[in-house]
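Researcher: We're teaching a course module on how sequence relates to structure. For the next exercise, students receive a sequence and then see the predicted structure as tokens, so they can try to spot secondary structure elements on their own. Here is the exercise chain.
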Amino acid sequence: MTRTKKDLRKAFLLVLPSLLLMAFFVYGFIGWSLRTSLSAWRGIRPDYTFVGLRNYVNLFLSDRFINDLWNTFYFTIFFIVVTVVLGFILAFLINRNVRGESVFRTIYLFPMALSFIVTGVIWRWLLNPTYGINTFLGLISEKLGAFGWYTVPTQTLGFHPALIALILAASWQFTGYTMAMYLAGLRGIGEELIESARMDGARETTIIRKIILPLLRPITLSAVIVLGHISLKIFDLVYAMSGSGPAFATDFPGIFMFETTFRGNRYAQGAAISMIMLLMVAIVVVPYLVSTFREETK
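Model: And here is the predicted structure for the students to work with:
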């Protein structure tokens, strides 16, 4: 046996325990959830009677689940846009050699050290109408409907104003993450390229649109994929801040799955919700991973 084959064998044996554990605890449980979602299991006692896609059909006939999908759509769009835009602005300003740069970086990155549960509790206090910042906003907050967040069940085109509070909290936590990514990208752009554009008479806005943003496109794509993955399976932030809210104004598939499975004991329907959530995340993540793998193999 050649040295190369011995090295490959050793490397395979080294990663084999991890592969076995991943196969059992990740893909094995995914397969079990899929089987459960196609069964009639309702109640404490397992019932694996095959019912086909009945649980999935019932979900898409449910007003609550359709509402959850709309909430996920709006939350994902606004969360990504706000986080990416603010992250780029902060990174651009810090990159201009401001005084106390390390202090600003620490302040902006600090929310990343918190869990979504902690963030949810903090923002629930801040937006409390009795002793939070809502107390000082008065009529403005009432007209906007942004800070009566857990008492506003109304909606416009499927958008609940109560989602604004969740978007603010999630964006506050992850803006520092996108700032760090963009700052690393800006530091990788040659200063001579920017200076030559300025010498040619290009304005700052033109430099941003024509030079900086195109060069930062891979970072933007990576940030969108990561943030999209987080928003599609959001649970803990919503659970800590508002739960499903009045008239399911802040309900999401993760909340619906939790209540259906562990409170309603409808395990088959809960498994169906989890499989749909997995599919939504896969639609976002898998194409990105495939394209990245192809680029690395070229």
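Model: If you want an answer key for the exercise: The longest helix spans residues 3-37. The CA atoms of residues 290 and 296 lie 10 Å apart.
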